[in-house]
Design goal:
With about 290 residues, this protein is mainly α. Helix content is about 70%, strand content about 5%. It has helices at about 1-10, 20-40, 40-45, 50-65, 80-110, 135-165, 170-185, 185-195, 200-225, 230-245, 260-289, and strands spanning about 115, 245-250, 255. Strands 1-2-3 form a 3-stranded antiparallel β-sheet. Strand 2 (about 245-250) and strand 3 (about 255) form a beta hairpin.
Length: about 290
């Protein structure tokens, strides 16, 4: 926190404030709205290219206008190994528990679950066609890296440190997490408007998916605020999405439709593990002092 704050105060211009964060947030949400409902760049490239480009441009404009270096949004080599290790360890634990919980549920219900590796895009609608090839796997990995850089750079690197000046750090983490949850409800709304789901399914998916995204956004915000290095959440975000794209569970009746169990456990375990890590870090710091 202190390193980023000092960098922001060293800007030659007046430091950015909540208004700056609001302007950029409204603009980026509008771009995402246009991209999801009208441009639909994901149908051409397998990823929302327009949204990602707009997000990266927003971050670069912010850095350029205020004459700030990349480290002002947490992209720094400061304690890099420490940040990467904790980000990697926590997400691996969460993924292992999440997959095991889903497998155990299916096993206890006599579904004969087995794991298989196959690159495919995630869909909130069951039985939707997906792409399967090594080339697509490379595209997914590249897209996940860009997606993590953009979303972590904007929601954690940018918004978190703008909101904390108006609120406390804890409230800022919650606010950016809620916005991150809203960021992910465009998909179920489009599925409903295009006739792929019912209104009831749309509302329930928005509530569930939005809540899960908000909680993981809060967890990533906490991890970033503690490590003071954005790479901790970038590696966690990239690994999470990439594993979900590659590793799947099938049953005797076909692909399992219980990914909600997996993602729920992943989010809960990641949040709890992050809180335990923060407690451990505080105790370690107090022992040294």
């Amino acid at each position: 926190m202190n390193r980023v704050e000092n960098t922001l105060r060293s800007s030659k211009f007046a430091p950015p404030n909540v208004a700056t964060a609001v302007y950029f947030t409204v603009f980026l949400f509008l771009v995402r709205f246009v991209d999801v409902f009208f441009v639909r760049s994901d149908e051409w490239f397998g990823e929302q290219v327009l949204t990602k480009v707009a997000g990266i441009v927003c971050i670069l404009l912010y850095l350029w206008f205020y004459r700030l270096p990349l480290r002002s949004i947490g992209l720094t080599r400061h304690r890099l190994g420490y940040a990467l290790a904790w980000g990697f360890a926590i997400i691996v634990i969460a993924l292992v528990v999440g997959y095991f919980a889903e497998w155990l549920f299916l096993f206890l219900n006599g579904q004969g679950p087995t794991f298989y590796v196959n690159p495919q895009g995630n869909s909130l609608v069951a039985d939707m066609p997906v792409y399967r090839s090594l080339g697509f796997a490379a595209i997914l990995l590249g897209g996940n890296i860009v997606n993590a850089l953009m979303e972590e750079g904007f929601f954690r690197g940018f918004l978190l440190f703008q909101f904390k000046d108006a609120f406390s750090v804890r409230k800022a983490v919650i606010v950016q997490g809620v916005l991150f949850g809203l960021w992910h409800v465009f998909w179920p709304i489009r599925d409903y408007l295009t006739g792929k789901t019912s209104l009831v399914a749309c509302v329930s998916t928005c509530l569930i998916y939005g809540t899960i995204s908000a909680v993981i956004g809060i967890a990533w915000g906490l991890l970033y605020s503690k490590t003071q290095n954005l790479w901790s959440v970038i590696v966690a975000h990239t690994l999470n999405n990439s594993v979900l794209n590659l590793l799947h569970i099938t049953t005797i009746d076909g692909p399992a439709a219980t990914i909600g169990i997996r993602t729920t456990f992943i989010v809960i375990v990641f949040l709890v593990s992050t809180l335990l890590f923060m407690k451990y870090a505080r105790q370690a710091t107090s022992m040294k002092s």
